[in-house]
Write a structure and sequence with these properties.
- About 30% of the residues lie in helices and about 25% in strands.
- It is built from 5 helices and 7 strands.
- The chain has helices spanning about 30-35, 100-105, 125-130, 150-160, 175-200; strands spanning about 15-25, 45-50, 65-80, 85-90, 110-115, 135-140, 165-170.
- Strand 3 and strand 4 form a beta hairpin.
- Helix 1 (about 30-35) crosses helix 5 (about 175-200).
- The longest helix has 27 residues, at about 175-200.
Amino acid sequence: MIFGRSERGKPPVEPVTLKILVAGGFGVGKTTLVGAVSEIRPLRTEELLTEAGRPVDDVSGVEGKRTTTVAMDFGRITLREDLVLYLFGTPGQERFWFMWDELSEGALGAVVLADTRRLEDCFAAVDYFERRSIPFLVGVNCFEGAIRYPEEDVRQALDLDEDVPVVLCDARDKQSVKDVLVGVVQHAMAYSARHRSTVTT
């Protein structure tokens, strides 16, 4: 780059930046997902689980979990030269839900990460985004040892609208997470186009 211009004589591309939320229940893999794909060292606000928190932090099914997000996770990924996503992982426990309104401000869309062993834990996130008309995709995190259900069964169990995408993913795998994020962007664009056409007719 020379004096603000690229060496080939083309002006630098000013990327479009989009905000994506990553939500879901406690221990579902939100921090892992952000960390798997972020091109910068993710900002994490994790604290050790304590005995004092045992009555409110249900670790059934995730007994190996030792930390919890108390504010948010933050990461960044460049999908194309002109498209950058900022990822904000929301805290999963109910006592931190007051932060969701702040984090969702200006969001293009969201990923609701689900664990089929504790599917009810993502009901609150699904309800939140539906009530605020924020387009979202459900990513079923395929944990080892968890039963894999067809996407249609997950859709039915969560009572999702037909147009809400449901995808299987691995929150540890960079390419799998990239596919989920591309899916969110595509879904949000389609959602926005449908909304615009409804308003103009």
